[in-house]
Write a structure and sequence with these properties.
Elements (H helix, E strand, L loop, with lengths): L7 E6 L7 H8 L5 E4 L8 E5 L2 E5 L12 E4 L4 E2 L1 H13 L8 E4 L3 E2 L2 H9 L1 H6 L6 H9 L12 H22 L7 H18 E2 L1 H10 L4 E8 L20 H7 L8 E7 L2 E3 L11 H11 L11 E3 L1 E2 H11 L3 E5 L9 E10 L2 E3 L6 H5 L2 E8 L16 H14 L3 E5 L7 E3 L6
Parallel strand pairs: 1-10, 1-11, 2-5, 2-10, 5-7, 6-8, 7-9, 11-15, 14-16, 15-19
Antiparallel strand pairs: 3-4, 12-13, 16-17, 16-18, 19-20
Helix pairs in contact: 3-5, 3-6
């Protein structure tokens, strides 16, 4: 992906999350100088397989597994410092050298114990199916201008004032929920004071550092969390996350200008999944859903919750191509379809006697649609040994060609397994 004209690349999910972004970032990071997380929080669950070793990263960019690559958590991320250092310590135990390679933006907002408590006690959060990790309440405090940033740890009196204010608001919310639990400012301050030395040691003006890297000709990989259809503005609202998951959020979340981003890679599964409530037009029936869920190990890396599964939805992905300005696609988990007798591909929606080819913004419209399918005969042979496009069965190639045509975006990568060598690079056009 990186060449003389593409030095800064953003990787986004082009469905409802869990598309395999971490796997692609891991592969692309081999040629990157910097990998930067630009939004989300510890609700990310990027699973990377290196040999027989599986590593799940929730906040730290996947590039940390590559020696020499610098990794940064941008200002658009809401940072859970407790989880961050648990993750750092686990990486160190596994022999990964993070010293001098990991930075956090001093402008990043902190997820605090009272955010997690509010998230867990909120009926609205339970209905939407959040991870309960305090992400939404932290973003709410950020927008309401009562958040605590990393740089506030440098100012003890200011920190006490902000924590007292945040705790009081959290307790008001808890009381309104009918919960008997209450947040404790003293506890939160104790946690922050204990972690402050480690956190401030890696805090930096990440936006400035990344801008200097870009101007110096470095290769920079911008890594998002969740998927485009969970974007606060462009997703299936209100069943969305609390941040901008699309490519537009990469500039503000990393602290660089939009002209510094040269290309955007969208990651999709060869079928569709989502976690929690909200529309999923191509969702399987119970029997088929369980079959594909088992074949694809469709359980959340962060929560362990089973994912809802359905056929590939070209309407969704075509929409994601548009709102992200995608340069190319990466299709993951093609191998999960290997044993199926026939494979559906949603080309549009029917609403009464009308055909809808563009993704609607109104949930009332979306809930009334009926998917229109094209059907492909299953290839019924393993694709796991494929190492180039020509190795794939003819029907599998036809399926990919049809996806490419329907969403009007070239496919650059196809994965047929969990290992790095099972990601096929199938062309260099348009990137």
């Amino acid at each position: 992906m990186f060449d003389s004209s593409t030095r800064t690349l953003v990787v986004v999910g082009a469905q409802w999350g869990d598309e395999g972004k971490g796997k692609l970032v891991d592969v692309l990071a081999e040629r990157a100088d910097w990998v930067v997380r630009y939004q989300g929080g510890a609700n990310a669950g990027h699973t990377v397989h290196i040999g027989d070793k599986q590593t799940v990263l929730h906040q730290i960019p996947s590039g940390i597994l590559h020696p020499g690559v610098r990794c940064a958590i941008g200002n658009g991320v809401v940072l859970d410092p407790e989880t961050l250092f648990e993750e750092v310590d686990e990486l160190v135990r596994d022999g990964v050298d993070v010293n001098g390679r990991l930075y956090v933006s001093d402008r990043a907002h902190l997820v605090l114990p009272y955010h997690k408590l509010v998230d867990k006690e909120s009926a609205a959060s339970k209905a939407i199916g959040t991870t309960g990790r305090g992400i939404g309440p932290c973003y709410e405090d950020k927008v309401a201008r009562r958040g605590v940033r990393v740089l506030d740890l440098r100012h003890p009196e200011r920190l006490m004032t902000l924590v007292d204010r945040g705790t009081a608001h959290a307790n008001q919310l808890l009381a309104s929920f009918g919960s008997t639990r209450r947040a404790d400012a003293t506890h939160t301050l104790g946690v922050l004071r204990g972690l402050a030395p480690r956190l401030l040691a890696i805090a930096d003006d990440v936006g400035l550092a990344v801008n200097r890297a870009v101007r110096g000709g470095a290769t920079v990989l911008l890594e998002g969390a969740q998927g485009s259809l969970l974007d606060i503005d462009h997703g299936t609202y209100p069943y969305v996350t609390s941040s901008s998951t699309t490519a537009g959020g990469a500039a503000t979340g990393a602290g660089i200008g939009p002209r510094a981003i040269h290309a955007a890679l969208g990651v999709v599964k060869a079928y569709t999944t989502r976690v929690g409530a909200g529309p999923l037009p191509t969702e399987f029936d119970e029997v088929m859903g369980e079959q594909v869920r088992t074949l694809g190990n469709e359980f959340g890396a962060t929560t362990g919750r089973p994912r809802r599964c359905g056929w590939f939805d070209a309407v969704v992905v075509r929409y994601a191509v548009r709102v992200n300005g995608l340069s190319a696609l990466a299709v993951t988990k093609l191998d999960v379809l290997d044993t199926l007798g026939r494979i559906g591909l949603c080309t549009g929606y029917s609403v009464g006697n009308e055909t809808l080819e563009e993704f609607p913004g109104d949930l009332a419209d979306l809930e009334g649609v009926q998917p229109r399918y094209e059907w492909f005969e299953g290839w019924r042979t393993s694709t796991e040994g494929a190492r180039k496009l020509a190795d794939l069965p003819k029907t599998a190639r036809a399926y990919l060609d049809r996806i490419e045509a329907l969403v009007d975006c070239p496919i650059r990568y196809v994965s047929v397994g969990t290992r790095r060598d099972q990601i096929l690079e199938i062309g260099r056009a348009h990137v």
